[in-house]
């Protein structure tokens, strides 16, 4: 019953991570919005953005692909009467931000054996956890998007990432998602199977371009 804001990033991984978590929460009936900073605002949480989010009636911010280093910003969020959940895949510093939960495989106390997921991969894991712990729905609904982000973020394609990308490429090759179909057509991949090169040199750069030359909201 509270308003939630997903706070992302303006690169391909951050945009896709935002949309994965936003779409899932929207479909479950949550009162949810999202905020992706423009490149001019800089990477990650910023004070002016959090104040605008608070003015929108949000009581919980959930970061994707950022937040692990936002120590002062987290304190500001709480001073505005909001709460924070951090999901990120970057390495932590000496201190964790104040939050209800910090989900990051690079936490010094994290027991996860696989550390190399991108931000969208972590968002996919959160969706699976919210859905009861089974990854089947998350992969079927968002495996295509998470695969694009994984390739775009140039993380290691072994372990869980290798499985995710292999699964996602099949979904992309046979996709009925309008955005994927449109991107494939623009890239000359209509009715063709795709591989990591097709994604890394075709689909992903067009998503990245929105954050570089226009607004990441366009790609979202």
Shape summary = globular
Q: Care to count the β-strands?
A: 5
Biggest sheet strand line-up = 2-1-3-4-5
Give helix and strand order, one letter per element, not per position: EHEHEHEEHHHHHH
Q: Radius of gyration, Cα only, in angstroms?
A: 17 Å
End-to-end separation in angstroms reads 25 Å
Q: Which structural class is indicated by helix and strand composition? A: alpha/beta
Largest sheet: 5 strands, parallel
Note the main attributes of this structure:
220 residues, alpha/beta, 5-stranded parallel β-sheet, 5 strands
Descriptive report:
This protein is an alpha/beta fold. The protein has helices at 12-27, 47-55, 71-79, 119-130, 136-152, 159-173, 178-186, 196-213, 216-219, and strands at residues 3-7, 31-35, 60-63, 83-87, 101-103. Strands 2-1-3-4-5 form a 5-stranded parallel beta sheet, sandwiched between helices. Strand 1, helix 1 and strand 2 (31-35) form a beta-alpha-beta unit. The radius of gyration is 17 Å and the shape is globular.
Which helices and strands, and how do they pair?
Elements: E1 3-7, H1 12-27, E2 31-35, H2 47-55, E3 60-63, H3 71-79, E4 83-87, E5 101-103, H4 119-130, H5 136-152, H6 159-173, H7 178-186, H8 196-213, H9 216-219
Parallel strand pairs: 1-2, 1-3, 3-4, 4-5
